[in-house]
Design a protein that fits this description.
heterodimer, A: 274 residues, alpha/beta, four-stranded antiparallel β-sheet, globular, B: 663 residues, Rossmann fold, Luciferase, domain 3, five-stranded parallel β-sheet, 27 strands, AMP-dep_synth/lig_dom (chain B), ANL_N_sf (chain B), long-chain fatty acid-CoA ligase activity (chain B), ATP-binding (chain B), ATP binding (chain B)
Chain lengths: 274, 663
C-alpha cells in the first residue's frame, strides 16, 4: 500500500453521457401549496459536467425547485427527465438510487456521530450485503466495509478533514460541518450533486475554502453540480450557467456575464415594486 | 536482512547521506525507514523500497537536467517525497535548499533568488501559486516539481512536473538501460565528503536570512557523534513534524535518521500531529518549550473541567511525581514509600497521561530555542520522560551543548556536546568549534568573516557563562545585553523569559538599555486568560478587549510583581526590575513582521513600530492612544485602534549575594 492513487477512484459514475450533453431536463414544472404558487411553469436543463446555479431573492422558489428535483415534492405539472428517463413522481430514495445527492441549507448531519461515520453513512446506499451479513460483520460484509472505508478515506483526504475524522460533528464549527455534509453527499458517488446554499452563514475565509472544494469536486471528479446560493459574487465566479428565479418564475437563464447585466435580474435583486 | 549484524553506527564511517542510504539498504533492507499516514493508514517503506524511490526520483531529476553543483529548493510539509528529494539531489552532487513553506512570497523570492536554485520541489498547489506569483524575480528557476497534483490540472504545464511522473521517467530509464542503477550507485560511492550536503537559510532574527552551507562529511560526523551520545539505533523512531527548513528537523530527523538508520514518520497533516504522535509513540522527540507549554496548558485545562474524583487523584499524584519523579528518573535514592506511591501513580496517572501525550516510548527528548520554565521542565521529567536541553545553532549544524542523561537542569543548557570546543570571549560571548560547523554563508564572504574569529571559532552572538558544574548558561543575545543609566546590567531576554514562565503571559518585550529603568510590553496568552475569563464570567469579544480588561491588568500586575521578586534574587539581574508595563492591544505576529518565522521577537522592529508606546512607558503617562496596521490571516490589511493603559510595578530590594558573583 505504498502508492497513492493519482486519479481519484471516487468519481462520478460513468453513466454513458458525454460531458456537455443533457443530464437533466426540467420541463414546464409548476408546484403549489394550496393556493400559494411556489413555482410556475419553469423549464431549464443541466448539462453533464457543469456547475449550474439557481439563484433568486428570498422566496423565489429556489429550495422548492431543489426539493422537486430530488423527489421531496411532487410537482402538479411538468416533467423531469434525468439521464434520459422521464419521471413524474418519485421519492427521495429513488433520487438517490438514480444518482442525485444533496446537502441542506441547515446542516443535516448526525450530530452525535463522528465525521468518519457520517461520511460512511453516505455509502450505505451503495452497500450490497444484507442485514444478516452486516450483523456478523465478517467475511464478505467486512471486505465490503473495508472497500467503502477506502473510498471514504479518499474523500476525507480530498476535503482535508483528517484532523476531525474521529470528532463528533456536533462539536465542529459550522464551516467544517458543511464540509462534512459535502463529504457525505460525495460518498454516494452522485451523477448530480445538489447543494442548497453551501456558503450560508460562512465568513469570507470559509467561503473561499468551500468555493475551492466545489470547483475541485467539479473539475477533478467530473461531478455535475447544481447549486442554490444567495451570495451573488460567489455564484458568478463559480458557475458555468445561471438560472434566475423570482416569485416562482424564471426571469433569466444564461452564462454569468449575461445574467449579471440582465435588467430583470437587477430589478429583482434591487427590489422594484411589482 | 541485517547481514552486517547491528554494528553501532560509529564503527563505519561513510561521509555522505546517499552512502548511508546504500549502506542501510544493505544492512537493514527490510526494516522500516519511512512511514507516512495517508488515507487514514500508516503507509510504510523499508530501506530497500526507500532506496528504489530515491533512485527513480534522482534519475528523473537528472533527466530533467539536475547536475552536480546545482541547487534545488525543497518547500512544503514533512512528506516522504520531499525527504527523498534531499537524498536524490545529494546523490547527484546537487545541494538541496529547504525553504520555510509558510514564508511570505517576498521572503521566499529572496531565498530562491539568493540561492540561485534551478528547480523547486514543492508539496502542492499553494506553493506552485506562490512561486509563480514572483517568477519574474527568479529568472534562474526553470522547473517546479510538485507532490500533490490536486488543483493543478488546468495549469500551464510548461516547467511543471509531478514527482510521480519524474519517478516513472526514472524507472523507464532504469528499464531501458540495465547498467544505469550501477552507475548511479558508483557515482554515490565516488563522491567525496566535500560536497555541500545542504544549505539551510537562517530564520533571519537579525536582518536578511543567510544561507548556511554544511559540508557532507561535517554533517555526517556531527550526526554520528550525537547518535552515539544518545545511543540512537535502528530500533528508534521519530515523528518528523518540525519545519523542513529548520536545522533541527534536518539534523535530528534526517541526518540522525540516516546514520542511525531509524524510522522517520511523517504526520498526516499539521493538525493531526498530536494524534499521530499517540499512534507512533516515538522513542526520540524534540519540541521547543512553546509546545511543552501548550501541552501542559491543555492538560491543566482539561483537568479543571474533569470531575471531582479525577481532579483530586490528579492533584495528589502530580504532587507525588514532583516529589520523587525526577529523583527516580535520575536514579537518586528515594525512600521505599516514595517508590511505592510513584509506582501506583504510574499505573493510575503517569502511564495513561504519557500515553495520551504520545510519550509512552520516549527514551530521549530535547527542548531548545528558548528558555524553559523550571516548573514546566520538571513536570515532564517527573512523569518519567527523559527531557533534556540542548543549545545549538544553524552554523553548528545544531549541537553546541547537550545535557547528559542524569545531569539535567532547567536553567542551563548543558556542557559542550561531543567533540565541541566552547569558550567565552572577553565580552562574554559564547564561541565554539564543532564537527558539524558550517563552511560559510553562501555568497556572503563578508558575513562569514564577521562570524568566524581569526582562530576559527564561530561567534554565536549569545552572551553566557559556565556555571560551577560546567554547564553553560545563556543569558541573552550578546548585542541585546545593555546597561541602564544606573550602570546595572540589563538583559532583556532574561527578563522576558522570567515573565513568560507565567502561563498568562505568552510573549513579552523588555526595554531599558540606556534608560532610567526597565519596562515591558506584554502579550497575554489567549488560551489561558480566555479560560480564566470564562470561569470568572468575564465577557469579551476580542483579544484586544480581553487584553485591556481591568481584572486582566490586575492579574498580570501580580505576575510582574512576582517576576521582580525573582529578579531581585539574581544578583546580576536585580538592578533591572520592571518599573512600568503595558499589555499590548494586539498579538505580536510573524505576518506583521513582529516575530520571525520561528516565532522569536524582532525586538528592534517592535520598538520602531510601537515607538509612541515606549515613549509613554517612560514619560509617566497612564494611557496612550495608538493606531496599528495589522495583517489578517488571509493577507488583507486592517488597522487596530486602541487606548493602551500603562501600569506601575513595585521594585523589590536586591537580595544579598549568596554565591559568588558570576562575571
Amino acid at each position: 500500500m505504498n502508492s497513492r492513487p493519482e486519479n481519484l477512484v471516487v468519481a462520478a459514475p460513468d453513466d454513458g453521457i458525454p460531458a456537455g450533453e443533457l443530464l437533466m431536463d426540467v420541463r414546464n414544472v409548476s408546484l403549489s401549496f394550496g393556493g400559494v404558487k411556489a413555482i410556475t411553469d419553469i423549464s431549464f436543463n443541466v448539462r453533464k459536467g457543469e456547475i449550474r446555479a439557481i439563484i433568486g431573492p428570498n422566496g423565489a422558489g429556489k429550495t422548492s425547485m431543489l426539493n422537486v428535483i430530488n423527489g421531496f415534492y411532487t410537482p402538479q405539472q411538468g416533467t423531469i427527465v434525468f439521464r434520459g428517463q422521464e419521471r413524474r413522481s418519485m421519492k427521495p430514495h429513488h433520487a438517490v438510487r438514480q444518482g442525485i445527492a444533496r446537502t441542506f441549507q441547515n446542516v443535516a448531519l448526525f450530530k452525535g456521530m463522528s465525521t468518519l461515520d457520517n461520511i460512511m453513512a453516505g455509502r450505505s446506499v451503495l452497500m450490497k450485503r444484507n442485514l444478516f451479513w452486516q450483523m456478523f460483520w465478517h467475511g464478505p460484509a467486512l471486505r465490503e466495509e473495508i472497500e467503502h472505508r477506502e473510498k471514504v478515506e479518499e474523500i476525507i483526504d480530498f476535503l482535508e478533514i483528517e484532523h476531525i475524522r474521529r470528532t463528533p460533528v456536533g462539536k465542529l464549527p459550522y464551516g467544517l460541518q458543511k464540509r462534512v455534509e459535502l463529504g457525505r453527499a460525495l460518498a454516494m458517488e452522485p451523477s448530480l450533486l445538489l447543494l442548497d446554499e453551501p456558503m450560508a452563514g460562512m465568513n469570507l475565509e470559509e467561503k473561499e475554502d468551500m468555493s475551492r472544494f466545489i470547483i475541485d469536486v467539479n473539475r477533478q471528479r467530473g461531478t455535475t453540480i447544481a447549486l442554490i446560493e444567495h451570495d451573488m459574487g460567489v455564484v458568478m465566479d463559480l458557475s458555468d450557467r445561471v438560472v434566475v428565479l423570482d416569485y416562482g418564475k424564471k426571469i433569466a437563464d444564461d452564462i454569468p456575464d449575461v445574467v449579471k447585466s440582465d435588467k430583470h435580474v437587477i430589478d429583482a435583486y434591487l427590489g422594484v415594486a411589482h | 536482512m541485517s547481514t552486517a549484524a547491528t554494528a553501532p553506527a560509529a564503527e563505519i564511517t561513510l561521509d555522505t547521506f546517499p552512502k548511508y542510504l546504500l549502506h542501510n539498504a544493505a544492512r537493514f533492507g527490510n526494516r522500516a525507514a519511512m512511514r507516512h499516514k495517508d488515507y487514514g493508514i500508516w503507509q510504510s517503506w523499508n530501506w530497500n523500497q526507500q532506496l528504489a524511490e530515491i533512485r527513480s526520483l534522482a534519475l528523473g531529476l537528472q533527466a530533467l537536467g539536475l547536475k552536480r553543483g546545482d541547487r534545488i529548493a525543497v518547500i512544503g510539509a514533512n512528506r516522504p517525497r520531499l525527504y527523498w528529494t534531499f537524498t536524490a539531489a545529494q546523490s547527484l552532487g546537487a545541494t538541496p535548499v529547504p525553504v520555510y513553506a509558510d514564508a511570505v512570497a517576498e521572503e521566499m523570492a529572496y531565498v530562491l533568488d539568493h540561492a540561485g536554485v534551478r528547480f523547486a520541489v514543492v508539496q502542492d498547489q499553494e506553493q506552485v501559486d506562490k512561486i509563480r506569483s514572483f517568477a519574474e524575480k527568479i529568472p534562474l528557476l526553470t522547473d517546479i516539481i510538485y507532490d500533490e497534483p490536486r488543483g493543478l490540472a488546468d495549469y500551464d504545464p510548461r516547467g511543471l512536473h509531478a514527482i510521480a511522473d519524474l519517478q516513472r521517467k526514472g524507472e523507464a530509464l532504469l528499464k531501458a538501460d540495465t547498467g544505469l542503477a550501477a552507475r548511479w550507485e558508483e557515482e554515490i560511492r565516488r563522491a567525496g565528503g566535500d560536497d555541500i550536503s545542504v544549505m539551510l537559510y537562517t530564520s533571519g532574527t537579525t536582518g536578511r536570512s543567510k544561507g548556511v552551507m554544511i559540508r557532507a562529511d561535517a554533517a555526517v560526523k556531527a550526526a554520528l557523534d550525537t547518535a552515539v551520545f544518545d545511543k540512537l539505533s535502528e530500533d528508534d523512531s521519530v515523528l518528523a513534524y518540525l519545519p523542513l527548513a529548520w536545522v533541527g528537523d534536518h539534523y535530528l530527523n534526517y541526518a540522525q535518521g540516516y546514520v542511525a538508520a531509524f524510522c522517520m514518520c511523517c504526520p498526516e497533516s499539521n493538525e493531526t500531529v498530536a494524534q499521530d504522535l499517540r499512534e507512533i509513540g516515538p522513542t526520540f522527540y524534540f519540541a521547543p518549550p512553546r509546545i511543552f507549554e501548550g501541552l501542559l496548558t491543555s492538560v491543566t485545562i482539561r483537568m479543571e473541567d474533569a470531575g471531582w474524583v479525577k481532579r483530586k487523584l490528579f492533584d495528589h499524584y502530580i504532587k507525588v511525581a514532583r516529589k520523587y519523579g525526577e529523583a527516580i528518573l535520575e536514579g537518586r535514592p528515594v525512600p521505599l514509600s516514595g517508590r511505592l506511591s510513584y509506582a501506583l501513580g504510574k499505573v493510575l496517572l503517569y502511564g495513561p497521561l504519557r500515553n495520551v501525550l504520545g510519550m509512552s516510548n520516549i527514551r530521549v527528548a530535547y527542548t531548545a530555542g528558548e528558555a524553559i520554565g523550571q516548573d514546566l521542565f520538571s513536570f515532564f521529567r517527573s512523569l518519567g520522560i527523559n527531557l533534556k536541553q540542548l543549545y545549538g545553532q544553524t552554523e553548528a549544524f545544531l549541537y553546541v551543548t547537550a545535557q547528559k542523561d542524569g545531569e539535567v537542569r532547567a536553567d542551563t543548557v548543558g556542557p559542550a556536546a561531543p567533540n565541541v570546543d566552547i569558550r567565552i570571549s572577553d565580552t562574554g560571548e559564547v564561541q565554539f568549534r564543532s564537527p558539524g560547523m558550517f563552511t560559510g554563508y553562501f555568497k556572503q564572504e563578508g558575513a562569514t568573516e564577521e562570524t568566524l574569529t581569526e582562530d576559527g571559532y564561530v561567534k554565536t552572538g549569545d552572551a553566557g557563562f559556565f556555571d560551577t558544574d560546567g554547564q553553560l548558561k545563556i543569558i541573552d543575545r550578546a548585542k541585546d545585553v545593555g546597561k541602564l543609566r544606573s550602570g546595572a546590567l540589563f538583559a532583556p531576554k532574561y527578563i522576558e523569559n522570567t515573565l513568560k514562565f507565567f502561563p498568562n503571559i505568552k510573549e513579552a518585550v523588555a526595554y531599558g538599555d540606556g534608560r532610567d529603568f526597565a519596562a515591558a510590553f506584554i502579550n497575554i496568552d489567549l488560551q489561558a486568560v480566555g479560560n480564566w475569563a470564562e470561569r470568572n464570567n468575564i465577557a469579551y469579544a476580542s483579544y484586544q478587549e480581553l487584553a485591556g480588561h481591568r481584572q486582566v491588568y490586575d492579574m498580570i500586575a501580580r505576575n510582574v510583581d512576582e517576576t521582580n521578586l525573582r529578579l531581585s534574587k539574581e544578583p546580576i539581574m536585580a538592578g533591572a526590575q520592571i518599573k512600568r508595563f503595558l499589555i499590548l492591544h494586539k498579538e505580536l505576529d510573524a505576518d506583521d513582521g513582529e516575530l520571525t518565522r520561528t516565532l522569536k521577537v524582532r525586538r528592534a522592529f517592535v520598538a520602531d513600530r510601537y515607538a509612541p508606546l515606549i515613549e509613554a512607558l517612560y514619560d509617566g503617562s497612564t494611557e496612550k492612544y495608538v493606531e496599528t496596521e495589522m495583517t489578517y490571516e488571509d493577507g488583507r490589511k486592517g488597522t487596530v485602534r486602541a487606548t493602551v493603559r500603562i501600569m506601575d510595578a513595585k521594585v523589590h530590594p536586591a537580595a544579598q549575594l549568596v554565591r559568588e558573583a558570576a562575571e
